[in-house]
Amino acid sequence: MSLLHPPALGGPPDPDSPPPDPRRDELLTLVGELTDTQRRANALAAERYRALDTLRQRWEETYGASMSADPSGIRFRSMRAQIAVVLLMPERSVETQLATARALIHALPATFDRLAEGRISDRHARILSDSISGLPHEDRVLLEERLLPAAETLAPAKFERKVRLAVATLHPEQLEEKARAAREMREFTLEAAADGMAWLHHYLPAEDAVAIWNRADATARHLAGSDEPRSVSQLRSDVVRDILLDDGVLLPPEQGEQGLRAPSKQNRGIAPTVQVTVPVLTLNGVDDTPGILKGYGPIDPETARRLAGTSTGLQRILTHPVTGVVLQYGRGRREVPVELRRYVVDRDEICRFPGCNRPAATCDIDHTRPWCENGTTDHDNLAAVCRNHHRVKHDGGWKLEQDDAHPGVLKWTTPIGLEFTTEPAAPPATRIQGGRLGSVLVQTEWAQADPEDQPPF
Ligand SMILES: [Zn+2]
């Protein structure tokens, strides 16, 4: 009997077989539907790759872009941006998917066929494409033929291990060179998560990663005990945080030693910096508007108050309602004055290109209507746009307008005529009489050092 189909009905009952069980039949049918859905999803993934690859080829023919010849060229970046804004995906991911589509369709046709038939998953296809599509033709064909059957039977993690082993043993002499190249990709990144939490990702050589984990684990297990309310997982997390942030951390014992060691004090003394913006009413406990932790986003009022009260290594930034900041320079000067630049950076927080997350502080301040076309140096004609997207705008055929009625709201038009609107992170300035604008001013210190007037910290 096939696992995926209910047993056939009818015919004379076999006296030895168990009595028919309709509930079991229903479950078998449901499992069959599930595997069928998975097969169709696999086939759809192939169709999606086909669509991506066809779009890439047509775009390249139309605009002269080239992913292979000039992946950092403005025409390719313009195409990548167009796909990213319709799929709501980061441009880097789009680039990866374009590369996977091309690799599967043109370099690994047998793998692509199997995906299109629904027999292997997108994940399995990507594992193969990532690991072998860049190899010389003979190696590629050999490995594809050898590994494809396993893609239909092994779970992704096991399959990946098998693929990695097969690639490594094919040319062991290249392992060292590849490891050296991979080391160049090491990085340390922050990813915001829900409920006031965040992930730190550290991509680094495996031996360092294992050593760091072992150190945290050894210290955590040493601290764990019947008096310690924290779990070993929590302790590991706290140990790593303490090592990175605090001076007073203890180290696990060396071989043959008893108890924890005091820190060496080497490589210490780098004060961590956290920038937090706290509305003044929240700080005073009058109001519970969330604070903003730079590099993360909104945090709960209690944590914001606590951070604002911590002075060491902390840049205290308090928002204060102030009127009368000049945000309009008209045609008076092309260069954006520091105060106005700061206003735009605070308003935008990130690059204003759809989907881009580069911090505004590292962006260009772009004249929406260019200065050479009579554009003004006013808050409602300025926006933070990263260097890459600044070039995509100027040379990649994207058009940009700022809404007259809603300063700070940007309308982008792609080379093929699609439109996307992006909103500023903070509410933009509102017009008041006399050409001056009311706004929220970010200040680094309290204006007056009147002790009676200080917030409670
Ligand atoms: Zn950008």
Shape: globular
In total, the number of strands is 13
Estimated helix fraction:
40-55%
Small molecules (ligands, ions, cofactors) in the structure: zinc ion
Secondary structure: elements and pairs:
Blueprint: H1 22-63, H2 74-87, H3 91-107, H4 109-116, H5 122-132, H6 137-151, H7 156-170, H8 175-183, E1 187-192, E2 198-203, H9 206-223, H10 232-245, E3 274-279, H11 280-283, E4 291-293, E5 297-299, H12 301-309, E6 314-325, H13 338-348, E7 364-367, E8 382-385, H14 387-395, E9 399-402, E10 410-413, E11 419-422, E12 430-431, E13 437-443
Parallel strand pairs: 3-6
Antiparallel strand pairs: 1-2, 3-4, 4-5, 6-13, 7-8, 9-10, 10-11, 12-13
Helix pairs in contact: 1-3, 1-4, 2-3, 3-4, 5-6, 5-7, 6-7, 9-10
Zinc ion binds at residues 351, 353, 356, 358, 386, 388-389.
Which properties best describe this structure?
alpha+beta; disordered C terminus; binds zinc ion; 6-stranded mixed β-sheet; 3-stranded antiparallel β-sheet; 457 residues; 14 helices
Can you describe this structure?
It is a single chain. With 457 residues, the protein is an alpha+beta fold. The chain has three domains: 22-182, no CATH class; 186-267, no CATH class; 328-428, no CATH class. 43% of the residues lie in helices and 14% in strands. The protein contains 14 helices and 13 strands. The protein has helices at 22-63, 74-87, 91-107, 109-116, 122-132, 137-151, 156-170, 175-183, 206-223, 232-245, 280-283, 301-309, 338-348, 387-395, and strands spanning 187-192, 198-203, 274-279, 291-293, 297-299, 314-325, 364-367, 382-385, 399-402, 410-413, 419-422, 430-431, 437-443. The strands form four sheets. It has a six-stranded mixed beta sheet. The chain has a three-stranded antiparallel beta sheet with strand order 9-10-11, with no helix packed on it. β12 (430-431) and β13 form a beta hairpin. α1 crosses α4 (109-116), α2 packs across α3 and α3 packs across α4. Residues 351, 353, 356, 358, 386, 388-389 line the site of zinc ion (ZN).
